[in-house]
Amino acid sequence: MTANGQESRRHHLVPRFYLDRWAINNRLRVTDLSTRRSFTAAPINALIETDYYRVPDGAVDGGSPVVWETWLSDLEGRAAKVFEAIDSDGLGSLDDTQWGHLLHFIGVQITRSRSHRYQGRWMMGAGQYQLWELHRPGAIEAMLTRAGEEPTPERVGQIERYFAAAIADPWSVPMLAEQEMVMAIQGASVLAEVLSSRQFVLYSTAKPLLTGDEPVVQIYERMGDDHPNGGGYFGAPVIVFPLGPHQALAMFRSNMPVPHGRELNAYETIELNQVIAANAHRHIVEQPGGQLGTRLRVPDLKEPARIVNVPPANGEGAELVWMPAQRRWHGEPDAPIRPVKSWWPVVVPPAPRPPAGWRTEAAR
Description:
This protein has ten helices and 13 strands. The protein is an alpha+beta fold. Helix 2 crosses helix 3 (96-111) and helix 4 crosses helix 6. The protein is globular, with a radius of gyration of 22 Å.
C-alpha cells in the first residue's frame, strides 16, 4: 500500500501480465484504430490511461482512491496463477476454485472496458434521446410533466443543452467513478455466472493471434446482422478470449456441438483475427513483428446500440422497443460469415431461452 497521494495514476486498460504474453524481448506492437498509428512499446507502457480506475478519496467506505485498482490487482494475481496452470497442464487441470477465478477474470475484462463505459454514457445521452423521441416538438415538456416537474422554459432549455452536449460527445455525460466501479464489479459477477454454462475448449493456432482492449469477443453466424433471438453473452453461439498469441479459449453455447479439432489452421486464424480486431474499442495488440493491425480491414466504430421499434404481432397490443447492441461489423456488407468455419454445424441450433428472472443489464 502506498502513502496517500503517492498512488500510481498509470492504469492498464487490460492487465499487465496479460499483455506480457504477447511480448518478445519486452516489446509488443499496438495499433491505434482511431489514427491507424502502429508502434512498439513495453507492456508496462501499453494501453495505459491516467486515473482510469481512480475514485474520489473516501468515496468508497471512506477508503483509498485506488480501491478499485487494488481490487483489480488482487483479481489479476489469482488469474495469473490460473493462466500458469493452463499453460502447464491444460484446462482439465483446473479445480472449481480456479475455474471461478478464470470466469470472474473474463467477466471483468468485459465490464472494466472503455466500450462498457461508453455504452453507459451513450444510454444516458443519445440512447435516451432516441428512446423517448425527444426531438419531437413538446416531447421534453411532456417528459417533465410525467415526472411531476414544471416544464418551464429554463428547465426545458437546460435539458436541451444537456442532450446536445451528450450527443455531440458521450464522454461528457457525468457519471460518478464510484458508481462505475460498483456497476463493473456487479456486472462481472453476473457475467461469470452466464459464462459458466458454456462449453470451454482451448485451441492452438497456426499463426499468431491478436488481442486488444476488448479481448472477449462474441461470434455469430453473420457478424453484420442483428441477433434478436440469440445475442449477447448468454445467446452468442461462440465467445472467444485470446489467452496468448497461439491460444484461443473458445466458449461454445451449451447447445452448440463442439468440433473435434483442437488446432486452427492459418486461414481460420486469420478469420478469428478479423473478428478480434473489429471487437476492439480503440487498440489492437500483437507480437512486435506483426503487421495485422494495419493490414486488416477494421470498420469504423459504431454507436453501441440503436433503437428499433417493433410493431405488435397481428397488429394487436403495444409496440415494443428493442435496442440491439452494435459492434464494428454491424451492418457492413462484407461482414464475416461463419468465422472459423470448423466451429459451425450445418444448422445452428436456436439459442435457448434465458431462465426466469434473467438479468440482462450486464449480459448484452
